[in-house]
Amino acid sequence: MTRPIIAILRGVTPEEVLAVADAILQAGIEKIEVPLNSPSPLDSIEALAKAYDDQALIGAGTVLTPQEVAQVHQAGGRLVVSPNCDVEVIRATTAAGLESWPGIFTPSEALTALKAGATGLKLFPGDMVQPRGLKAMRAILPAGTQVYAVGGAQPDNFADWIAASADGFGLGSAIYKPGDTPQSVKQKARAIVAAFDAAW
């Protein structure tokens, strides 16, 4: 089962990234992003792409410029996630053949992102919008629009978000934070997968 969950490895280092990713994949999560404000992120993305490209969707988060899109593409990433809605970044991402998941907070941003060619939408920060905000926004989104809740979505409220029409989630510190061992990441990832499967 390919679950609509993106593991956000903010702060991961190239030295540990393969072990951490392996733990996440073993738990059943197959989408991994390394935010570009992590240590040597492109090295981590390149290592992940070489090791797991046939098993997982690998890419970058906190992508803010078209130049960074090009760097992610060159490193082998296939997923570009941003905290904001930047039309130039979205267009550069889709032109490179990568998945584009821009951050949106308002209906205007959502429709602007979709018009620019976004693959799906990252509702961020989710804890400021809450499930009821997504439910209200869904009325103006085109049918079939994929929306992942990020920043406020966690195992104990998956069901609330899913009931409000969330298609998936991005999870950061709930799955990894600097200093975590691969074993602790695996335990957290397994708990997340169990909660998701129960709610879905």
From TrEMBL:
Its EC number is 4.1.2.21. The keyword Lyase applies. Pathway: Carbohydrate acid metabolism. CDD domains: KDPG_aldolase. It comes from the Bacteria. InterPro entries: Aldlse_KDPG_KHG (IPR000887), Aldolase_TIM (IPR013785). One of its GO terms (molecular function) is 2-dehydro-3-deoxy-6-phosphogalactonate aldolase activity. Signal peptide: none annotated. It is an enzyme of class 4 (lyase). Keywords: Carbohydrate metabolism, Lyase. PANTHER family: 2-DEHYDRO-3-DEOXY-6-PHOSPHOGALACTONATE ALDOLASE-RELATED, 2-KETO-3-DEOXY-6-PHOSPHOGLUCONATE ALDOLASE. Homotrimer. Belongs to the KHG/KDPG aldolase family. This is 2-dehydro-3-deoxy-6-phosphogalactonate aldolase DgoA. It comes from Planktomarina temperata RCA23. The lineage of its organism: Bacteria, Pseudomonadati, Pseudomonadota, Alphaproteobacteria, Rhodobacterales. The gene is dgoA.
